[in-house]
Amino acid sequence: MSKIEYLFISRCLSEFAGAILPVVFPLFILKTTHSLSLSGLFFTITMLPSVLLTPAMVVWIEKYEKKKVTFFSVLTLAILCSIESMLLKFGRYDFIYLVCFAILVAIFSMMLDLSSKVLFTELVDESELEKYNGIRSILDNLSVFGAPMLGTLVYGVFGFSSVILILAILYVLAAVVIAFIPLESKNGGNDQIVEESFVQKFRIGLHFIRTEKAILKYFLLIMALNFFVASSEEVTNPGIAIQKYHLPTSIFGLVSIAFSIGVILSGFSLLKTQKLSSESIFPNSSC
To answer: Coil, strand, or helix at residue 254?
Structure first.
């Protein structure tokens, strides 16, 4: 089995696990707090550290072997889920434990996603990068497609601790698969790289975004979409579907599946529209 196949299998396992928690966790928090506003506050607190640490995290990942970072991240997620599962089995539902668990999972999930994507580019030749990138995208979407339904079904029948235990098993399997990827140095063992400080790299990135008008528009668009849409899965959808329309938690995953189908259909519609291109969306005009 090739190195890229090992990475694909590991990503499928970790992506499947990562797609379950954002759907089931809000249901558990909403059930525990009985308040949509408190649920929103909970996820704001838990997501803020990972967002603030992302720039520094990218710089840190660049300094180390990407396979080691990926393995460390997925193994840490497995350990966190194992510990949380045991705490839940013993009836420890303390809010502070849930906050700490959610913060750490968000941080290491972000680290896993960044490192595995960089590792992917290192394992694939530049001439085949576009082909394998398409395969990776398809596998990622297929991995997360059935996760919400399965997660909510397990949550509704067996409880939140069983869901976390399943996540721990999936992350352990992903770590085992990652371990089979052989380490290779693409620069022939020459690791002497001119180091730049975090502040220098951050200023270079800001300068690039500010001077490239198309990138700036894309950056602002993503910020707006994240602000208005990103919270729908964790806060808005559970509040509307469960509190207002009393949808059973065991079939709440259908909401996320419907959302995924919409994303897939929109992607196909973009492919069918020949006239639509990045230039038409982000013309090189002055702001």
So the answer is: helix
